Amino acid sequence: MPHNSYRLSVRGQQGSVLVIAIFVITVMFLLASALVRVLNDGEESLVLEVWGTRALFAANSGAEAGLARLFPINGGVTDCAAVGTVWTPPALVGFSDCQVTLTCNAASLAGMTQYTIASNAICQSGLCDGGVVGGSSQCIRVNRQVEVQARVN
What we know:
With 153 residues, the chain is α+β, with helices and mostly antiparallel strands. It has helices at 2-13, 16-70, 80-83; strands at residues 86-87, 98-109, 112-126, 139-152.
């Protein structure tokens, strides 16, 4: 009699290994998908940081170019009209896909003129202005603004 009860006990437990295996596979899948999501988020934040740095440097360069136009190297001071509204970055890798706009304001007070130059840089990659070409619709657009002031007696 003990021999038959052992046989029934083994038959009753044969399907439990399958349930445990499915549970373990499901948990491993969830852990793997969470890890992939964390890695993708880290990659995206790194890309945004790089584009943000490019935009900041482009805005700095635009402000410096505006100052160079306002205070030419041969001496003297021009006016805000010489600064212009656009600075075209050089055709270098660091400035690719960046556009820089400039604004200049002059304020006179007590025989002194204060110039304020604002440089706004927008760097982007992908199709940010609509449309899907080749099935890719990813867009990264970063904006940085730098403002400098200079006084002249």
